[in-house]
């Protein structure tokens, strides 16, 4: 039973590119996070063993990439290429303010018994009722929602609003206003609600050039916030995951994961 | 020479003589590299809480086609954060073209743009320089406004800036 559960979880994680504990890092890395003139950026995406190096797999970008302009409109990625080790795309950032670049995956996995046979199904939540018999024996339904994102600002930073879906970072300190030696406050929300007790991990990039990862564990307080002082400038990988019953359907166990690439600037 | 004259006048003329203000001498060092480009420079006054009291000068690639010179304004990193990103350049009386190595004198008169009316208090005059294919340097000169008497202070840069000298005219 335990084995079946964990292998199903692993399969789910693989399918969703969701970073389970000790899984690979999944990230989007923009060429710039602060721009003083509207124009193109290019973004690398990868599933890696080190931060931020392309050494494992490309990001599987299909219809799951969302580039959101400051006014909430969608920007289409250009020149999207998936290589063997990384995925690359360009984005033309024409408006002033903060862009959110996110790869969002959401999927359901169900398994149940028909006689001695184990049935499995994976698909969008909307299809669950039509594809899986509600009274199936030993029915287990798991939902995975992952968000992998980064932020880029042209000119003056603008507010980053929560989408209200799944686990996400909601800035108190703006994500393009992070500076070495200064305390930054960030918050996590689940379905738009500030959530206490979310455990997050922060790792500085350039892991290739040091012996210890130097992971920093952070936990959100009663207001769903945590505060951290970045000692060094550079790119950081922030990741968090929580599990619990799905909102709307208590029978579905849901796993929400989040990762962000954050750039911390020198003073 | 000019400085001595200003000080002498300030001392002798008790009646309304020179308008109060700030003079800044900024030395851009000659850097002997083949790919030398004139640095971008920002000069501003900030309060102890880091808020900007006045943007005094910004030298950048103002004449480049299609506003291309604004692309690197963000490299004046501190200025960009403090106020640059709030501004629409060019700004009359503040922005101008980049300057050649040498010492450049800037004079600002109290009550007139861009210095304007400065509330009494502690300030920092900040000079930030950033050079393409080169480095970046920030210098601070603390000052008290208004000055009781003519005062001067200077700081020495190490790589992208030479001497920055500030004279306060009461």
Q: Please, could you describe this protein's structure?
A:
The complex is a heterodimer of chains A (267) and B (170). The longest helix of chain A is centred in the N-terminal third of the chain and has 15 residues, at 2-16. Chain A is built from 2 helices and 19 strands. Chain A has one domain. Chain A has 267 residues and is mainly β. The model of chain A is unreliable at 1-22 (pLDDT under 50). Chain B has 170 residues and is mainly β. Chain B has one domain. Chain B has 2 helices and 9 strands. Chain B has a 5-stranded mixed β-sheet with strand order 4-3-2-6-7. Chain B has a 4-stranded antiparallel β-sheet with strand order 5-1-9-8, with helices on one face. The longest helix of chain B is centred in the first third of the chain and has 11 residues, at 2-12. Chain B is globular and about 45 Å long. At the A-B interface, strand 2 of A face helix 2 of B.
Kindly list the characteristics that best describe this protein.
A: 267 residues; mainly beta; 10-stranded mixed beta sheet; 5-stranded antiparallel beta sheet; 51% strand; disordered N terminus; B: 170 residues; 5-stranded mixed beta sheet; 4-stranded antiparallel beta sheet; globular
Structural class of chain B: mainly beta
Mean pLDDT of chain B: 91
Average pLDDT figure of chain A: 91
Largest sheet of chain B: 5 strands, mixed
């Amino acid at each position: 039973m335990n084995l079946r559960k964990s292998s199903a979880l692993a399969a789910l994680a693989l399918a969703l590119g969701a970073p389970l504990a000790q899984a690979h890092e999944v990230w989007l890395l923009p060429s710039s996070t602060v721009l003083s003139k509207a124009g193109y950026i290019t973004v690398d995406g990868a599933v890696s063993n080190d931060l931020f190096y392309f050494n494992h797999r490309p990001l599987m970008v299909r219809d799951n990439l969302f580039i959101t302009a400051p006014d909430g409109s969608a920007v289409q990625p250009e020149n999207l290429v998936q290589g063997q080790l990384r995925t690359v795309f360009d984005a033309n950032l024409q408006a002033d303010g903060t862009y959110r670049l996110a790869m969002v995956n959401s999927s359901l996995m169900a398994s149940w018994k028909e006689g001695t046979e184990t049935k499995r199904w994976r698909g969008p939540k909307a299809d669950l009722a039509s594809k899986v018999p509600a009274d199936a024996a030993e029915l287990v339904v798991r939902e995975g929602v992952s968000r992998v994102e980064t932020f880029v600002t042209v000119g003056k930073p603008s507010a980053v609003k929560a989408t209200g879906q799944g686990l996400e970072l909601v800035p108190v300190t703006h994500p393009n206003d992070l500076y070495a030696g200064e305390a930054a406050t960030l918050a996590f929300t689940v379905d738009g609600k500030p959530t206490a007790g979310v455990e997050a991990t922060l790792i500085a990039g350039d892991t290739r050039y040091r012996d210890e990862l130097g992971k920093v564990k952070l936990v959100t307080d009663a207001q769903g916030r945590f505060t951290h002082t970045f000692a060094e400038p550079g790119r950081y990988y922030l990741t968090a995951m929580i599990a619990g019953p799905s909102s709307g359907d208590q029978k579905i166990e849901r796993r929400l994961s989040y990762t962000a690439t954050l750039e911390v600037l020198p003073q | 020479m000019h400085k001595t004259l200003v000080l002498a006048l300030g001392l002798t003329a008790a009646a309304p003589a020179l308008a109060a203000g700030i003079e800044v001498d900024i030395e851009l060092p000659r850097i002997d590299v083949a790919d030398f480009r004139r640095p971008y420079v920002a000069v501003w006054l900030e309060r102890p809480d880091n808020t900007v009291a006045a943007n005094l000068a910004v030298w950048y690639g103002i004449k480049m086609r299609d506003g291309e010179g604004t692309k690197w304004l963000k490299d004046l990193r501190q200025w960009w954060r403090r106020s640059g990103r709030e501004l629409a350049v060019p700004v009359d009386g503040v922005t101008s073209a980049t300057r050649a190595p040498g010492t450049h004198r800037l004079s600002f008169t109290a009550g007139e743009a861009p210095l304007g009316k400065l509330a009494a208090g502690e300030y920092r005059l900040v000079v930030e320089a950033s050079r393409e294919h080169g480095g970046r340097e920030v210098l601070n000169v603390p000052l008290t406004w208004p000055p009781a008497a003519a005062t001067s202070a200077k700081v020495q840069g190490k790589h992208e800036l030479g001497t920055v000298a500030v004279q306060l005219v009461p």
